[in-house]
Structure prediction request, 195 residues.
Amino acid sequence: MTTTIAKKDLMKNCALCLRFFLTALMVLMSITISPTNAYAATRPNFNNTLFRAEPGVRINIRSNLHGNNDGWFDYSSGDVRILSSGHFRNGIEYFHVRYPLFTGGHREGFARRSDVIVGNIQPFQVTFIQNTTVFRQSNLRNSFGTVWGEDRGAGYAWIVGRRGTLPTSPFQVIYRLDAGGHRMGWVTSTSFRAR
Prediction:
């Protein structure tokens, strides 16, 4: 009788240990492959990014993700800041943005990622061969700043979009600023190489 009780206790303890082990394993797996970690590893960071809409393109804004379009901005509105990314509604990603109003001041809302990023390419990291001018427009007009070349130790830049498919078509780039934050603009295909 003692052996039967001991066997039952042993089996009960093994089941508890196994349950504890499996729970701990599930917790560890959720930390290592959580959506946020995977997102950061495979995509550029759009948070705190300054950009300008393409000329002739009106980008609709929702005041909240569940509302209707209730505003818009375009190139003439001025520079727009992406405050955060990774907001989804019905499987569509939105950027939380702050954009200037024609009457003065700013307003916040949500813009579809696909309205801000041009073309449908898989983002990839690049290194700039030399200091390169970044432009506000895909026609490579209106300088927006400079992304530093390899000699300055710059390395964080992502190609996120492309206007056209010709070898000379401009690329949409996001890069980190020395002062903090990011800028998104346009560069030529000859100014960078994939990392």
